[in-house]
Amino acid sequence: MPLKKRIIFQTAFETYTASDIIGQGGSGYVYKCQDSNGNFLAVKLLNPQNVTKDRLKRFKNEVLFCQQNNHKNVLKIIDDGPYLQGDKPVPFYVMPLYDSSLRDLLNTGIKTDRILTLDIIRNRDMMGKC
Predict the structure, then answer these.
(1) Across 99-128, average pLDDT
(2) What contacts 36, CB < 8 A, 6 or more positions away?
(3) What is the pTM assigned to this prediction?
């Protein structure tokens, strides 16, 4: 959904201009944005109206987890910083812009050839033989 007014996210080394809101959840918003080189990215912003100590802690843990883990199935955080909502700093991070979201995948279903199968029964039986 296009924004009525563009939002500017500033970090120490880059400026990101948000033009559309592409997702919304219980803790925040995801915006489609462009960096100063014209690259399309996404910004996740903690909801300024719902900032609590607990949500700040969870958001911080999310950022730290993604920054400390390098795996194809873990979100890559490109940049992060505070967005000033009035005089209140609200955390955000920048990530690649994907064609769809996890919510889209859950709503449409996963094709059987993309499912990772687990042989739980076999593994349980093998553990019992140790």
Answers:
(1) 70
(2) 14, 15
(3) 0.80
